[in-house]
Design goal:
The protein is mainly alpha-helical and 194 residues long. It has a domain at 27-145. 59% of the residues lie in helices and 2% in strands. A hairpin with a 2-residue loop joins strand 1 (123-124) and strand 2 (127-128). The two termini are 55 Å apart.
Length: 194
């Protein structure tokens, strides 16, 4: 969220500047989730590789048997790397879609995702290609899924008066000491009409 958006939400210029300065190094939730998921996946892959190496050390017997086992491990590692790449892409895609839905002010991201065509989705610079167009079409066809931007009320017709800040009864005394001074200056003054 940038400074202009914060000002549009009703913050003063000074408040918006303070917020943007404080959160300049903030990592978006989607990016944080990607990194945590990637870290956990790499940890599990490392543990699997260690386990495979220990099994390999135990079975250093027959050369043919060793070659077969190495080939099996290579195939397993290749399929694990492909699975990891696919899982990472899916995670990045889901996070990019969530960010785009939030940016479009979607109310229910799960319902909106169900209506999007993400079969052949591709990422470019952390954004899903063609997603903005799908979201704008969805806003038109199913507007209830998105928050409606409220226009400020601008009533036509009679404009109410600005009012006054005076107390009822005119410019009479505001404090007790002012009232006493006024009564001393005007002894015949009716205090009920002040």
């Amino acid at each position: 969220m940038n400074k202009d958006e914060l000002i549009k939400l009703g913050l003063t210029e000074e408040q918006a500047t303070m917020v943007t300065e404080k959160y300049v190094n903030m990592v978006p939730q989607g990016r944080f989730n990607e990194i945590v998921e990637e870290k956990n996946s790499l940890k599990s892959q490392l543990a699997e590789r260690d386990k495979q190496l220990k099994e390999l050390e135990k079975s250093v017997g027959d050369n043919k048997e060793l070659k077969a086992q190495i080939e099996k491990l290579q195939n397993d590692n290749k399929s694990a790397a492909e699975k990891y790449a696919k899982d990472l892409f899916d995670l990045q895609l889901n996070n990019a879609v969530d960010v785009a839905i939030t940016g479009a002010k979607g109310k229910n991201s799960k319902a909106i995702k169900a209506l999007l065509d993400l079969e052949k989705a591709d990422l470019k610079d952390g954004k899903v290609i063609g997603l903005e167009e799908q979201l704008s079409n969805l806003k038109k066809s199913d507007p209830y899924l998105f928050e409606i931007e409220k226009q400020p009320a601008n009533p036509n017709g009679f404009k109410p008066g600005d009012g006054n800040n005076k107390t009822p009864g005119g410019d009479g005394p505001k404090t007790y000491s002012e009232m006493v001074a006024m009564l001393e200056a005007n002894p015949n003054l009716d205090i009920n009409n002040l």
